[in-house]
């Protein structure tokens, strides 16, 4: 007879959100974080738990399902940490109300964070500047939007960012802001860096030493930008800081499906080679000029102090509790 606890079923809302995050139907750190928090709220609202212990077990199970979808997108576990660590109450109804309040407060802070970050990042941009972007980042867009609202005219070279072409989303969004956009293939970045005033990238997570984990290709772009003397700025809300790295944990690099790169028929036509499709790479802090957050602008080496201020030294995950 097993002593392991019975498996806890999660709500359809949690399962659906996890599937959408895993398939990248839901993308972008802030969007992922909000979706995860709201899914926990729906789990709580629909719970039939008959005791506080059962209710908490349901929440932890839902958090584990959500957590397992995107190991590199640290905004997801940070959202789960925020919601679960603020849950208090001695009855199911009080716990349910606590979750609802925690989710609401988290989403409110999330909404304000991007606006505040945008204002900070806009201060780096001057009227007439040309930027270069990689992948799709709502934090980068917030900086550009704030600069445009200040009356600054900007132009942009946008890397298409294969294999999923997220740069197309960025190109459309920048065009809607009135930015003059030039879409380029990824391998053309170095050719146009001499015409660029700032490289602006987002982050999926940021390590304690100031390393930036972002869409594959960011590191190469940063090296080329440093060689050309073009400043590279990372725009990232504090929900993207990776507290586990304070204690020496490394960041997992997600490997995505080979079918994003080549379909099965084409693979067979070219000899069926092994296909590697890493989603992210790590840019060392020496290639990053500044990290812009809603709390201000920081040199990479100062991120560890901000991380300790926000998260302390503990990295115990509330969804891992017995």
TrEMBL record:
Superkingdom of this protein's organism: Archaea
Coiled coil (UniProt feature): none
Alphabetically ordered keywords of this record: Carbohydrate metabolism, Isomerase
GO molecular function, one term: ribose 1,5-bisphosphate isomerase activity
Residues involved in substrate binding: 27-30, 70, 214-215, 240
Active site annotation, chain numbering: 135, 204
GO biological process, one term: L-methionine salvage from methylthioadenosine
Catalysis performed (reactions): alpha-D-ribose 1,5-bisphosphate = D-ribulose 1,5-bisphosphate
Enzyme class: isomerase
EC identifiers of the protein: 5.3.1.29
HAMAP family in the record: R15P_isomerase (MF_02230)
Family in the record: Belongs to the eIF-2B alpha/beta/delta subunits family. R15P isomerase subfamily.
Misc remark: Reaction proceeds via a cis-phosphoenolate intermediate.
Function: Catalyzes the isomerization of ribose 1,5-bisphosphate (R15P) to ribulose 1,5-bisphosphate (RuBP).
PANTHER family with a match to the protein in the record: METHYLTHIORIBOSE-1-PHOSPHATE ISOMERASE, RIBOSE 1,5-BISPHOSPHATE ISOMERASE
Protein name: Ribose 1,5-bisphosphate isomerase
Organism: Halobellus limi
């Amino acid at each position: 007879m097993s002593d392991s606890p019975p498996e806890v079923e999660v709500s359809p809302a949690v399962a659906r959100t996890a599937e959408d995050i895993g398939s990248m139907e839901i993308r972008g750190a802030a969007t992922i974080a909000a979706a995860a928090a709201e899914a926990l709220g729906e789990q709580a609202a629909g719970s039939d738990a008959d005791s506080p212990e059962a209710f908490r077990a349901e929440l932890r199970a839902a958090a584990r399902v959500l957590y397992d979808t995107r190991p590199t997108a640290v905004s997801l576990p940070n959202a789960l940490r925020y919601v679960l660590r603020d849950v208090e109450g001695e009855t199911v109804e009080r716990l349910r109300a606590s979750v609802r309040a925690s989710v609401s407060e988290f989403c409110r802070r999330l909404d304000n964070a991007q606006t505040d970050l945008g204002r900070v990042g806009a201060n780096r941009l001057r009227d007439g500047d040309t930027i270069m972007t990689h992948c799709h980042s709502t934090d980068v867009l917030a900086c550009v939007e704030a600069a445009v609202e200040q009356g600054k005219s900007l132009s942009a070279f946008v890397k298409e960012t294969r294999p999923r072409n997220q740069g197309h989303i960025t190109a459309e969004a920048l065009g809607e802001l009135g930015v003059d956009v030039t879409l380029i293939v990824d391998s053309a970045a170095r050719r146009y860096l001499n015409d660029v005033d700032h490289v602006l990238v987002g982050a999926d997570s940021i390590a304690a030493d100031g390393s930036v984990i972002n869409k594959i290709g960011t590191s190469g772009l940063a090296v080329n930008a440093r060689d050309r003397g073009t400043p590279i700025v990372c725009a990232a809300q504090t929900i993207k800081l990776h507290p586990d790295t304070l204690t020496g944990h490394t960041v997992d690099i997600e490997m995505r499906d080979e079918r994003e790169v080549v379909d099965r028929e084409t693979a067979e036509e070219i000899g069926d080679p092994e296909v590697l499709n890493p989603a992210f790479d790590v840019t060392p802090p020496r290639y990053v000029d500044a990290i812009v957050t809603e709390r201000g602008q920081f040199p990479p080496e100062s991120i560890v102090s901000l991380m300790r201020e926000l998260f302390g030294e503990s990295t115990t995950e509330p969804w891992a509790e017995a």
